[in-house]
Amino acid sequence: MALFKRKNKSTAEKPNDGEGKQSTLAIVKDAYKLVKQNRPIAIPLSFLVFLAVWAIGWIIGFAINNVITMAILFFTVAFGSGFYFFTRQANKAAFTSIENQLGAAASVLMGIRKGVTTDAAVGVDRNQNMVHRSISRAGIVLVAEPAPDSGSSLVTIKGLLQDEKRKIERFLPDVPVTTFVAGNSLRVSQDSSLVHFSKLPKEIKKLNKQLTKTQVRELRTRIKAIGGLNMPIPKGPMPGFAGKMGNRNIKMPRR
Fold first, then answer.
1. Is 164 a domain residue?
2. Engineering a disulfide at 98: which of 39, 42, 83, 241 sits with its beta carbon 3.0 to 4.6 angstroms away?
3. Rounded-to-integer distance, Cα 244 and Cα 93, Å
């Protein structure tokens, strides 16, 4: 089974009567299990946030002699605040669960839903250090990801990254290319030039938009036409981030 396997849209079965689609309740249940396993302290803290905000409502109610109205109003605000805090902790728990797994950065990149498409492991060396390629309006973004237990030096990893960059510049000289080296907490603490894999979406969104949407579509077509740039993907299980959190943040239910 290949790493980072995507579903084929043309062959994927369409769910019947909502079958196969996760409900909001199911997502929250999965998030609760994930938080309980990786960040158990976040559950009582979320409840404390709820109580603290609601208590403010009661205090204001007593001050203006309108307790019932303020209690009801702030109950909604308190619930929203507690739930927002919980979702933030759930995202952190999801990152923690894949911290030292092979392909963690690829999982995060492939979870960026809007305006970014990612091909995982377009460059791989014998130590399973990888380079992932994302395409967005900022151009092409190459992200090098060291294998968790490879012990490869930063020079080796950057060399793999530069090889992939030269390959792209040879065939697509007019396209802007940005590079990052991602790492887990240990590697980032040892070298501040690395980007923690959980911060990759934020770093990519900060890049200047240099291409139009039409140019991005053309770029994707050109990349597919080149084809031979991709290298074999190493065998192994896909990190659990995509399965546990569905590669997406939890959102508040729409009012």
1. yes
2. 241
3. 10
